Fold this sequence. Notes:
Elements: E1 2-8, E2 13-20, E3 26-35, E4 42-48, E5 54-58, H1 63-75, E6 90-95, E7 106-107, H2 110-118, H3 127-140, E8 146-150, H4 160-163, H5 169-175, H6 184-198, E9 206-211, E10 217-222, E11 225-229, H7 252-260, H8 264-273, H9 276-281, H10 287-295, H11 299-323, E12 328-332, H12 333-338, H13 340-348, E13 369-370, E14 379-382, H14 387-403
Parallel strand pairs: 1-6, 6-8, 9-12, 12-14
Antiparallel strand pairs: 1-2, 2-3, 3-4, 4-5, 7-8, 9-10, 10-11, 13-14
Amino acid sequence: MIILVINCGSSSIKYQLLDMKNDEEYDLLAKGLVEKIGLPEGCLSHRPTGKDRYEVELPIPDHKVGIQLVLDALVDREHGVVDSFEDIQAVGHRVVQGAEYFSGSALVDDDVIRKIEACCDFAPLHNPANLLGIRAMQNVLPSVPQVVTFDTAFHQTMEPHAYMYALPYEYYEKYGIRRYGAHGTSHQYVSQRGAKLAGLDLNNSRIITCHIGNGSSITAVRNGKCIDTSMGFTPLEGMIMGTRCGNIDASIVPYLMKKENLTPDQITGILNKKSGFLGISGVSSDCRDMLALADKGDKKADTVLKKLINDVAKLVGGYVAEMNGVDLIVFTAGIGENNPRVRSWICEKFGYLGITIDPEANKNSGEETIISTPDSKVKVAMIPTNEELVIARDTMHIAASLKA
């Protein structure tokens, strides 16, 4: 089944076209990125498998035009990988926030769209953009089944003591204020792949997945199901990130609002876009820049890196206690996959668990690898995440059930 996977941002569209034979066998036909939607100079970067990359710059006024550009590239005689639009049998979309409505992927219909709209307040930067992609695809390919996969769905197995905040219960009942988490498709994928790689029975395992990138979250996965995660009501909670502050004393918010005469939107912007690595360093939100600066003696960059390591260590340690042990720790996402030094520094904090890292194996940044030594009491792995594959699998199963 040929499936187009769409991941819409506010001004971008990431996509992959996959030919799914089954859950484990598939071919990546093409992938690409549409950027700067709504700006004077838009851009399409299309990478068909086995062919040269194709790039074009032109105005892209909205997501409908962006979707059409993607489809045109996929069927183009020179750069395309399928003969016609009719070859695309289903479309899968990433949606960030599904709240308590969705514990798994769903076929798009009017009710599903209404529920995604109802969740826009929980993810105002993401859900509206995700809806734009869904509606644009409905306009362009109206007869093709569409499926939505939610970042929050994997975390719906948490129990109330893990997802509730100690606020008056009426705020949960009235406004849905609770921990939802994020990066769920990534945590689901790498925990399953990690268990296979480490030779564990997923249904009898304790795994901690560390999705560390510009946005970061840590998740405790027991017997294949999430029992706790570090992101909360929004992706702001948890550890230090590229531009997000992570956990802070809630009283800081009204204090700063009074001192700086800030509106709610302004303080939200500071916490989400001007904090984290960027906020402390004053220079960059990129971990690679922090490493380079710290090597040159920059104290702020050094503080950023030490806070990153400390935050991960505290979260992992807490989840070890919550699960009464751990069998496998997995690193993934931009920093987790590509920074051996950061992985090594984090694992040095886990000597009490009997973890030892193989320096040679830890140099790997491209392929899934066990980076702990054979005698390590807890296994440690690096698994490149593949959220698009999770979406494609779910889309395949749901679309196939329509024909059954």
